[in-house]
Structure formats: structure tokens, C-alpha cells
Amino acid sequence: MNNEQIHRIFEQFNSFNILIIGDVMIDTYFWGKVDRISPEAPVPIIARTKIEHRLGGAGNVALNVQSLGATPYLCSVIGDDDKSHILIDILHDKNLPADGIMQDKNRITTIKTRVISDNQHLLRIDEEITDNILPEIQNRFIEKIQSIIEDKRINAIIFEDYDKGVITPEIISSVVKFAKEKNIPTLVDPKKRNFMDYHGVSLFKPNFKELIEGLKLDIEKSDFDALHQAANRLRSEMSIDTVMITLSELGIYINDNGSYHNIPAEVRDIADVSGAGDTVISTASLCLAAGMQVDEIAFISNLAGGLVCEKVGVVPIDKDLLMEEYLEIKIQE
Question: What is the pLDDT of residues 39-72, one digit of tens each?
């Protein structure tokens, strides 16, 4: 692609609406200082100086989609509790639509609380219910998703699965069937529970750990022949168009129609890998909606994932920086 085509594609992102279905949560940070050990037990006492709430899980995918210029529609089921108000407030603060958020009095809003002192992560506390949502809630949730698809001219759908119970096999099959009728591409960032339930999706993106757990494999990350066989098995058994496997320091493997490409990772100063997978699936969704070739989808998604790894903490991709680096690489080819 030449410079003009690249600029046109990145500009096209601004017109896209992306639907994100999955487990949204709050990432809470307790910042403080440790000066002494508790007399009650051999544990540090932290004097809290600040508390911060951030959007996590599928919410981070929405933030990445937004940073790339598109409009994200986040669909999830949260609790009907005090913490749900914090989550809704964060959505409003980030100018993210809350049309797809449902509240369920039988659930709690998922929170992951990290206790940090002098940039050292001391403890994490998780508050969550991981059982599947109840059938009545599930049916209403499917109706809400279909309503948004009808009303908002959706260009791609992402399943962002964290095994917290919002995504069920019935939701997957209903949404994929509806998306096919509307000719909308579907992408998946899977976890273990529903791994083999994503039949008929357009792009399936596990990381290496999720792949070997989901298929119960014993292979090395660098064994590309074995990766090729695993990807072909997924495509055949689940009628998937494209399989894209993130391999961290080895880059990205992508398999489309039996042929495959391995996109090596760019050499970078890695500060934090947190959230890189969210960035990869977000970027891939827009590239797929724009009609890019699979090797280019993998290349630019790999680039985006690497860029956010240079930042400390979970941060969304910088669109201008991504385009600048992409153009630079293309000029050198």
C-alpha cells in the first residue's frame, strides 16, 4: 500500500461503529506508601494516598477502538450495585455510549483492586461472579444486542471473553447468525470456557497460552508447523475464516484459507505487556472492517500491540503514532 491508501484507511476508521460484547469490569488502584510492618501479622501496612478507577476487561477494548477513531458500542451485563454506578460514570467520563449495558440484581459488578506502593504491586483483590448469566437475562441481552446492530450500522463485532459469564454459547450462536445475515464480520478474543463455541466467526484470536489450553496441545511456541496444524484444525472444525495467534516476543501468526504468515515482533523497549491483546483485537477489527488483506491486518495489529507495550500500565493505542510508524516502515520497504 502507498501513503495515500494508508491515510485513506486510517481516515476510514473514523466512520466505523464497532460492537463489543463481553465482560466489562473496573480496574481499581490503591496507591500508597509502606513504612512499617503490621504488629498483628508479618504483612506491610500501606498508608493509602490515592484511589483510581479505570475501565477494564472489554471496556479496555472499547477505549482502544475509540482511540483509533471509531465509535464503540459496549454490550455487557453488570451488577445492580454501588460499583455499577462507578462503571457507568467512567463510561460517561470517557464519552462511551452505555446503550448496551444491562444491570442484573443477581450479579455484582466485577472489580479487580490492585494495591501498589512505590510502583510495586503488593496485592490484587478480585470481586466477581463467574457463573453464566441466567437464561432470562441472556434472552434480554441478545435482544438488546440485536437492537443495537439494527439501529447503529455496525461495521464489526468483537467478542471479548474473560470467562466471567456474560458470554454464553447461546449468545455466541445467536449473534454470529444475526451478523452473518447482516454481512458483519465477527472477531473473538477467547478464553478457555467457550473456546470451542465460536463456530462461524470471521477472525479468531487466541494467544499461545489460550490456544494450547483450548485445544489441549503440548507444543512449543516456535513450532510453526504445529501452529499451522492447530490453526487448520480450528478453521475446519469451527468453520472459522481466519485464525490469528499472538505469540508475544515471536510476533503474530495468521492463517487464512490454509496459507499462513508469521509477522515477527518489532524490536522494542518493553515496559508493560498488560492490555496488548486488547489493542491487537481492536486494531484487527477496524482493519477487517476496512477490507484489508489478512497479512496487513496481522502486521498493523502486531505493530499496535508492540507500541502499547512501551507504555507503563494499560493504555489505549495512539492512532497518530501507529500511522506514523506504519508509514515509516512502508517507506523503507
Answer: 999 999 999 999 999 999 999 999 999 999 999 9
* pLDDT at residue 273 greater than cutoff 90: no
CA–CA distance, 203 with 331 (Å, rounded to integer)? 28
pTM listed for this prediction: 0.92
Domains and CATH numbers, the chain: 3-25+56-109+129-332 (3.40.1190.20)
| Alpha carbon distance 191, 22 (integer Å) | 11
Element (H, E) at 143: helix 135-152
Residue type, 308: V
pLDDT per residue as tens digits for the range 95-146: 999 999 999 999 999 999 989 888 788 889 999 999 999 999 999 999 999 9
Dist. CA 55–CA 86, nearest whole Å: 10
CA distance 322 to 6: 11
| Grid coordinates of 319 | 492512532
Q: Residues near 18 by Cβ (< 8 Å), separated by ≥ 6?
A: 65, 70, 71, 72, 73, 154, 155, 156, 157, 158, 282, 285, 286, 289
Catalytic residue, candidates 23, 197, 256, 278: 278
Residue 278 annotated as catalytic: yes
Mean pLDDT comparison of 173-182, 222-231, 259-268, highest-scoring range: 173-182
